[in-house]
Amino acid sequence: MGKHLDPVETLPEAPPYRPSRNRLYKWKKNFCVVFGAYSLAVGGFDELRTWGCQHSTFLYDIFMRLGKMPW
Question: pTM of the entire structure?
C-alpha cells in the first residue's frame, strides 16, 4: 500500500510551479508598462496604453486558462 501513497507525495510538488507563474505575472506587467511607454513615446494616447493592458491581459488569460488574475 506504500505505492498508493506515492501519488499523494507528488501533490507537494505543485507549489514549485507558482514561481514560474509569478515570472509570467511579472512579464505581463512589464509588457504593459513597456507598451504604455511606447504608446506615450509615439502619441501619448491613454487609450492605446489602456488597450495594450487589456490586450495583454486577454492573451495572458487565454494562454494560462486560469481565469482573470488581479494585477
Answer: 0.28
Angle at which helices 46-64 and 17-42 pack, to 10 degrees?
A: 160
Determine the longest span between alpha carbons in the chain, in angstroms.
67
Asked whether residue 64 is assigned to any structural domain, the reply reads yes
Q: Answer whether 57's CB lies under 8 Å from 68's CB.
A: yes
User: 61 lies in a domain?
Assistant: yes
| Per-residue pLDDT tens digits for 28-51 | 777 767 776 776 666 555 565 566
Burial of 65 by CB count in 10 Å (0-12 exposed, 13-18 middle, 19+ buried)?
exposed
Domain range for residue 60?
A: 31-71
